[in-house]
Amino acid sequence: MIGGGQGAFIGAVHRHAAALDGLYELVAGAFSSNPETSKASGQILGLSADRVYGSYQELIEREKALPEAERVQVLSIVTPNHLHFAPAKLALENGFHVILDKPMTFSLAEAKELQTVAAASNARFCLTHTYTGYPMVKEARQLVASGELGAVRKAYVEYPQGWLSNFEEGSDNKQAAWRTDPARSGVAGAMGDIGTHAFNLLEYVTGLSVTQLCADINTVVPGRKLDDDGAVLLRLSGGASGVMVATQVAAGEENNVRLRVYGDKGGLEWQQVDANTLQVKWLDRPTEIRRTGTGYVSSYARHNTRTPSGHPEGYLEAFANLYRNFALSLQADLGGKSAPPEALDYPGMEEGVRGMAFIENVIASGRSDQKWTEFTV
Amino acid sequence: MIGGGQGAFIGAVHRHAAALDGLYELVAGAFSSNPETSKASGQILGLSADRVYGSYQELIEREKALPEAERVQVLSIVTPNHLHFAPAKLALENGFHVILDKPMTFSLAEAKELQTVAAASNARFCLTHTYTGYPMVKEARQLVASGELGAVRKAYVEYPQGWLSNFEEGSDNKQAAWRTDPARSGVAGAMGDIGTHAFNLLEYVTGLSVTQLCADINTVVPGRKLDDDGAVLLRLSGGASGVMVATQVAAGEENNVRLRVYGDKGGLEWQQVDANTLQVKWLDRPTEIRRTGTGYVSSYARHNTRTPSGHPEGYLEAFANLYRNFALSLQADLGGKSAPPEALDYPGMEEGVRGMAFIENVIASGRSDQKWTEFTV
Amino acid sequence: MIGGGQGAFIGAVHRHAAALDGLYELVAGAFSSNPETSKASGQILGLSADRVYGSYQELIEREKALPEAERVQVLSIVTPNHLHFAPAKLALENGFHVILDKPMTFSLAEAKELQTVAAASNARFCLTHTYTGYPMVKEARQLVASGELGAVRKAYVEYPQGWLSNFEEGSDNKQAAWRTDPARSGVAGAMGDIGTHAFNLLEYVTGLSVTQLCADINTVVPGRKLDDDGAVLLRLSGGASGVMVATQVAAGEENNVRLRVYGDKGGLEWQQVDANTLQVKWLDRPTEIRRTGTGYVSSYARHNTRTPSGHPEGYLEAFANLYRNFALSLQADLGGKSAPPEALDYPGMEEGVRGMAFIENVIASGRSDQKWTEFTV
Amino acid sequence: MIGGGQGAFIGAVHRHAAALDGLYELVAGAFSSNPETSKASGQILGLSADRVYGSYQELIEREKALPEAERVQVLSIVTPNHLHFAPAKLALENGFHVILDKPMTFSLAEAKELQTVAAASNARFCLTHTYTGYPMVKEARQLVASGELGAVRKAYVEYPQGWLSNFEEGSDNKQAAWRTDPARSGVAGAMGDIGTHAFNLLEYVTGLSVTQLCADINTVVPGRKLDDDGAVLLRLSGGASGVMVATQVAAGEENNVRLRVYGDKGGLEWQQVDANTLQVKWLDRPTEIRRTGTGYVSSYARHNTRTPSGHPEGYLEAFANLYRNFALSLQADLGGKSAPPEALDYPGMEEGVRGMAFIENVIASGRSDQKWTEFTV
To answer: Name one GO molecular function term (chains A, B, C, D) (predicted).
Structure first.
């Protein structure tokens, strides 16, 4: 693991996600750019002191020098955005498989370069767009793909949070500090932190691509340096349209990602607060409540479930599904077999590059007087 | 009543709403432009044959000729949009109080002219924006006005329907036919039919005015002559922003108007499907569930409630609240007293003119390449 | 109307319910046993002074003396329980149709006598078990009757309220006072006030009869003279079993009647707080959400609905459905036709007698050390 | 781990729960009474072959022979009920800490004997009543304990499942087979499998004890050998009363454990399907929605949470909380410190004995003609 030392949020999430299925063992880390902090974190995590490194470069170099059977196989990179590219690139160049937190990089240019590096490597790559790991999100994608809803006409995605309603970066809030800092977060705040998730979710489930957008991007809290709120009109491939809302100043909201997609025959609705339910709506018959863990759901939903219906699976399980599928893909590679399509269904380079393109396009549109901006990659 | 003959939807709703509290008696009508249909409708409704007229002109002329104690006092006009202006104008000019279905007129120009007519008349006027009649919508407005949520930063309103997902106007659907016909509905379809409700609800609860908008207006169903879908970015007075979504092609959706408003201290959420609940969300304490009929709600909510908490009040009750408040205002006038502010809180001319301005502005924005359109009246 | 003067709750509900569809006109009343109060109430309600009477005897005598075309046709009796029997009997004996609030009488003996009186009369009779007026409760009954859920195995009904959590009868609460007074309410408090509703709802939807019961009946609030809480194990005809819970001391609960019924193939769930939804659950396919006002529901549900789906209908509409069906039945009688089965589906004598039997049986069981008490009528 | 070989349900759950926080490492197992199956299971789980045993006796004997630093510290016993007592006893007698699946034993007599054994041992013991691991269940218990709801008057607990609606034990369903077999499950079916959970949840949250009960116990599915349905009237210490419902034949239900508790000032409601929400209801102010991961919840809720609010935690996290608290308690022991009360709050011997007493009392009551059965241990 690179990053994720004491006080980090997402590093712990990655560790839970990796641990849940017993398919990973944490054996090495460079948990902080401060070697002391890194060492202390490694000790708390029970790592052998000689596998805790002072930098990602040292980690990669020294692990590579170990016999293949002993060295780390997968590197989880859970640093702030500005520290994604360099370690990911070095890891891929040295043949380590990489699991990288989103958004992929600091800029679209970095993302494209990383894509090139990855294309030349044999290593696998996963970008942790958590929400696509939920079984009912898998079900939603399969439902759209099946054509049962008809051609997609409209998609709404929203991601409301309230935790940045005050000037949190002015107090001792590490999470707020880096996310609102252009030097660490990049050109976008909310659009990068949660907008990319919403964008990815919409493209994943609809199977469509955003082709044009028109954004209203705001910095609501005085003194803040990056956007904390946005709303975007979308045009999608195939003639559909959509709306995306992502905000971090919706006071009182937690983290309720919500997606609705409508075709000419029916629609679907999913929201994280009721993550194990997929509502399927029809023009002229009752709404269906599809549920995680039941016998009637698609193989993709079933594959990403651990318990029978009625035993709620949550955020960590969704996250763990990414880790699990990545591991199953690697195991298949090692065994010389091809993994089943359900295991290969995790976000990768393409999603990462499009996410970075979204960030740059949406911020550009927000600054533009022109109504529609082409979505360029 | 003018309009609302057999086969009409909203006419029957008005009659239920008027009847519920026993404050109105239906005594006269011109229910159709076809005198035979009008007569037949009047008979079914149990009216005396001599009070059923062949046209609104005849109704107004002949009712005016009756002794004051006998003549109709209030005229409900429930015709399609293109037949709002003329009867409303004539009624107001002749001193009849008017309850008019929304949107107010066929065009903004008509709306302004009607406003001038009304200003010169002693007659009262009510526009039936039903949703503002719900007790918990009243509560929402009072909550925002109280300042408890802080300054409003963000407002989201949505009005998804699915009933026009197919080309209904091609079949024998009277409701679809006139709503999609530019000659009867006006310049807008969905934006006029449901968009105006959403717009009114947002302005009513926030107490703010839309100042600029940027609209994506679509005609999704092939062959349709007016918009059936739209999404609008909004800028509001006081620096807030918002998003409005109104569509009639969200297959499987019924009529779930939903509003969310966020200030810097908290937020609120109301949706028609759970109309007797107002969610009040706070930055750092539990969400509150405020309910119709409880002892702790505002005088405005209480005034618009008929039963103790736990006895759901619905759409007809919300509609009836407009009728009831209008009647209470008239009774106060007749008694030489002023009605309490709770009774005077019903939509009127100002809301009607702004609604028509919304329609024209949003359609113009939809056709424009310019990002932001000033909201002009 | 008999009873329902100023300060009464249910009288106003009956008036709204009667008014909603324009099928009734309130023309006469004996609103209170105090002639002054009755007169004052009549004046407020806009009745002609000569049709406001000082007692129900006077009302019935003098109305009967009027020409048939002028006299009142239907008498709504909305007095406390101890004043149900005498006016209902006198009304039926004199050929007036009767709508009576529940529970039917003060005792089972009275109920049986009233049944005998009614059998000898041509007058129609309706008992206002409101909850069976909801469209989705109609749908539930039809669904069970269709056999789609298989043979009923289990039924749960609950009726939790919290408004009697304190000793309200010690303060100036008229509603609490008579409901907790054995001289006015009868042998039961909560079991009569809300338990009968729950019992009726269960028998109505399942189509089964309670055959045995085992009750835990409590008076929770110190000083109270009647039960305010109860839970009852039920055995039903056909081998099914059930549980009924009714309480008025569930602090914080409003009035959320809820019913669940399970057959061997599926189950259903309805609750008043979401009255326009019927959940239909299946062993091996998704739960269905059936909704009021849709095209796919049964003729019984459709018949009892006024607005398209998505326009919530509430308690007053459910109540009004009883009044409307009663009126449609009378209109059919008057026209020499038979009303459609949907209109004839309202609670009557049989339900009233069984409700009173429930009260006496459940209180007896509560006092007994014997586990199972036969349900005797 | 003892039990939990291939095809078992709860064994995998225990492994996920143990793995999630990285506090346990699976090093040894006797996964099946069949040595071949045990070996195969161990291999799949990646265990060293010499730590996979053919029986629990062998496991305990040989692990005990290992140096203390190498031997297994905690034994998870996840066998069917009839195989709980013997391995648990042997483990405790040999100083191994034990985590045991519920219900504790095959009979109350065994449970008491195990309690005696444990009292004489230094080993810690945890019984996996999962539902008390949910953060909002912790919050519920703390809320009741705080007295804010007033004295508890009423408690309702329900546990509806539908998966045994058919004669599943007649087909190839291992889970159904042993749960409906008196030789493996004990004297009870549903009452042992899910009734004990409901009973435990009720006593845990209310802090009260069941003192008397009156049970209706049914075997609904023809041919089944144990109960699959029950409803129980409860009397609780302190004068409160309650109702418990547990069934496995509610066709279409998943696993929605639900608890409601009412005091004289307010009430609470929790249900597993919305596990991160605790509804707190008040007599005269709005219902509060308390949520997992927020800043305002009790230290007990916070201690049992891994992610910020809005990231749903589910069944495996609740299960993992038991494992985590057990590990934290052991770590504190090893460090010579006392664990914080939040870590010590996991179910143990006392809960196990009471659970077995519940099973025997409830089945006895079900067979009795006497109304109330004393709850004896």
So the answer is: nucleotide binding
